[in-house]
What we know:
Layout: H1 4-18, E1 24-29, H2 37-47, E2 58-64, E3 69-74, H3 76-81, H4 87-99, H5 104-122, E4 138-139
Parallel strand pairs: 1-2, 1-4
Antiparallel strand pairs: 2-3
Amino acid sequence: MLKREELDKISESIRFAESNTSGEIRVYIAKHCKGAPLETAYKVFHQLKMDETDLRNGVLIYLSPSDHKAAIYADKGINYQIDESDFWKDTLELMLSYFKKDLIAEGICKGVGKVGEVIKSRFPVSENDINELDNEVIIEE
């Protein structure tokens, strides 16, 4: 689906986005999405234990390219802070605009960057910040 260099580019965009925030961003690519994408993203978020970050500031970008489904799920620490009600919808639409042009990796990177920008204003990086979650793209087997 995605080449190694595209996966590396996405991982690098996650590292860059997280360099200015204590927030955690993960990308999960599913073979198939059974059900509503947001509900599935919620389940995957908890399976990955993303709800165990210290500040509850994790964001999961969930994609199923073969089913043309995607969702962004943020933990309660972030949702409590984000007052832009359309932010998640707008970020998803930005990503989908790239997907429609078959620019999957670029669309994911744009979404990661946009998420990173908004969470850094609410969760700036601290002096003793540690990366709580791996930055590698998770591909469902």
